[in-house]
Amino acid sequence: MKPILLGICSALFFAVTFVLNRRMELSGGSWAWSSSLRYIFTLPFLLALVAGRGRLRPLLREMADRPLAWLLWGTVGFGLFYAPITFAAAYAPGWLTAGTWQITIISGSLLAPLFLTNVQGANGSERVRGRIPVRGLLLSLIILAGVALLQLEHAQKLPESQVLLGIVPVLIASFAYPLGNRKTMELCGGRLDVFQRILGMTLASMPFWLIVALIGWRDSGLPSGSQMIQSLLVALSSGIVATVLFFRATDLVRHSMTGLAAVEATQSLEVLFALIGEMLILSSPAPSLISWAGIAVIICGMVLHSLFAHKEPAGAKSAPRGEREELPSVQ
């Protein structure tokens, strides 16, 4: 149950991204600055956290051993995840971006065959290729059905071009985030903790973000003070708190594709949190009856996923002791 609760908390803090990105876009801020500033502001906080715990050198050694792999999967997991998310904010409301993002529930499950898992066989533990968790995937479809109801009425009011530009980039992000997350878990092999892994991905993606920042400077000049403050808030809530909570949750179930699918399914609540946030901050109208029905379906799907996650497949190996340490405070 702990990974599910951590996932829900991360969804709450991730929702800040969708609301503030939309707010910055409506006020004339560049999507390039919104995305790059988040990771530029996140970097010093992560460096302080990791260095303060005396774990910076082990991370740097790991990255020095396989620099190209870190560069690739850090850029995929963070760069190709967040840049499309902020770009989509220019063409769609936060609730629609958050709703489309829920495709990551299915994306994460479909990536299972790309990874090896530990299974206890007759000759001891062995590595086998993961399988798509069919039952978990069906439960994910229930959640997606709720998401579809949640945004149905709103999507009908938007121009087709706006819908596509608000959806396609998020579809790319939905595959990039779980892929980069899981690939870096393989790179670490349990040798790094959550903070080290997030810092490693942030450092590895920094060349990408510097290029994006140059694009923002070329297109709109330097960011405004308001955009910098809001980007800092996004960096703290989503870049630090939410990311650490989500990565910690996935670490706890790293040897179970079913568990990973359940944790990734908790991100469906971002839709609800983003909707509430837009109502409070951007004065968006209250949801219709159809939207409330979608919220109810999402919650039901979440309960089913939580129950299903406790039924581990036969022979599945639980996370090692080192992966179960308590999550340090990041506030």
UniProtKB/TrEMBL annotation:
Swiss-Prot/TrEMBL keywords: Membrane, Transmembrane, Transmembrane helix
Annotated transmembrane regions: 37-56, 68-92, 98-116, 137-155, 161-177, 198-217, 229-247, 259-283, 289-308
Name of a matching Pfam family: EmrE
InterPro entries: EmrE
Protein name: Membrane protein
Organism: Paenibacillus stellifer
